[in-house]
């Protein structure tokens, strides 16, 4: 019976989500349709319109991509993964964006970390989402994002922390984090945290977010080693 209840809950969450996704996709589609119509009338479109169309298409692609990760019943086949390398790669990927924002990355990584059995692509997605959020929280606030990677051998877990000095999160918003489509950003989609939490849960891990408005945010992820 418990399993049945769990399954119904899951269904309704996915149903809710699908409705949200449909809604989120309809807006850019409406814009795109308008521009295609305009192009039909004029015979061509100027560069700025094409730019907007491309970014609307990217937006649809992103939303569908995040949704697909969620729709996957479980993580792909776990492989022994070097989290140190994986995190360094993600930091490198976001390095130029950080520079533009005047943000520097500081890393504290334990040496000789054991490999973690995980779906590396999904883990990448988690860290990109979280580091991107940290960067976006530091828009117009220069400073550092500290990324820690620790091995707690007693508890047999790896602990990853992403600590920013950004705008922080109001206490009444904290419980809403990870709710589908909850966003405080004009062009956010409010899917990143939900997808990340789902991936971490699929790996039997936990994610905790602590924050103080005006001071910054710490996202902590604990993943069991076996
Ligand atoms: P999005 O980034 O598209 O808004 P997310 O699910 O990644 O969606 O995040 C949801 C919301 O959580 C953000 O809009 C923001 O309000 C809040 N948030 C997440 N991470 C941080 C952070 N590091 N600092 C401040 N707010 C954050
Ligand atoms: Mg985000």
From TrEMBL:
Primary site of residence: membrane
Cellular compartments annotated: Cell membrane
Record's keyword annotation contains Kinase: yes
Histidine kinase domain segment(s): 20-226
GO cellular component: plasma membrane
GO terms, molecular function: ATP binding; phosphorelay sensor kinase activity
Alphabetical keyword list: ATP-binding, Cell membrane, Kinase, Membrane, Nucleotide-binding, Phosphoprotein, Transferase, Transmembrane, Transmembrane helix, Two-component regulatory system
Protein's recorded name: histidine kinase
Organism: Cohnella terricola
